[in-house]
Amino acid sequence: xxxxxxxxxxxxxxxxxxxxxxxxxxxxxxxxxxxxxxxxxxxxxxxxxxxxxxxxxxxxxxxxxxxxxxxxxxxxxxxxxxxxxxxxxxxxxxxxxxxxxxxxxxxxxxxxxxxxxxxxxxxxxxxxxxxxxxxxxxxxxxxxxxxxxxxxxxxxxxxxxxxxxxxxxxxxxxxxxxxxxxxxxxxxxxxxxxxxxxxxxxxxxxxxxxxxxxxxxxxxxxxxxxxxxxxxxxxxxxxxxxxxxxxxxxxxxxxxxxxxxxxxxxxxxxxxxxxxxxxxxxxxxxxxxxxxxxxxxxxxxxxxxxxxxxxxxxxxxxxxxxxxxxxxxxxxxxxxxxxxxxxxxx
Length: 346
Known about the structure:
Layout: H1 34-40, H2 42-45, H3 84-91, H4 102-160, E1 174-178, H5 180-185, E2 196-202, E3 208-209, E4 225-232, E5 235-242, E6 253-257, E7 261-269, E8 272-278, E9 295-302, H6 305-322, H7 331-335, H8 340-343
């Protein structure tokens, strides 16, 4: 009897486990940069829409990215001057964030981009103005230094003859101050005004005698002078009494300003002087006091009020002449000596 082949088993057989692929989990909306949460919260904390200046806290170095607060500069330049993030934002053509507050985020992002551009333009404008201030101060320094060299030569000649160089009285006089170092470190966000030092006598009642004839009064040459150094509304000091200088000297005259600042004057010629002041006196007007010089040296030039008034009048007249005529002003009225424009100046 031959062997029979085993019949196939048709009963229930275990099937191999079916491995199902995991369903792709939908990513949660990516976290937005810190600047957005800070600025967006102003609507609730202060009850108003954000101002462009509200973005400045995060734009101090103009180096952040809207996608990551920790993104580093990708160029080889100085990160504090990098504008890569501005270029990246300009290239972005589609929205990569689709959260419920996407509209608000992209609206604020656009405002932030505009503010960045404003700050970049502002920085460039400040740099141009800074260069102009430094060049102007250097011109004044060269003028005073040339006068100082002339004084040194005159002093040597006078010394050979056992003579000295007399000085006019500084009482009632004001000297405009200039310094290229100060122009370098000055904070451009402050109001720029005339910097000066003024000298005056105190009258019998303790008041100030600013008159230009103060130094010509009887006995004035023996009276000391007081004074005031002014840099801006927040930075300056008073000093005195100071012995009235009557002779040009190389030696500096030292005195305390407000009883604590070491001031050093050099009176070497009529119409000019030099002044050294400590950094502490100017620190509130400086961009980076810690890196500024310990001592600032200013040159002083006697203020000529008559000359200044003449220059202002000439500038105004030039501006008026270059002003385009209104439709109601004819060529005759604007240019003929009998015209209304010319007669208005009589």
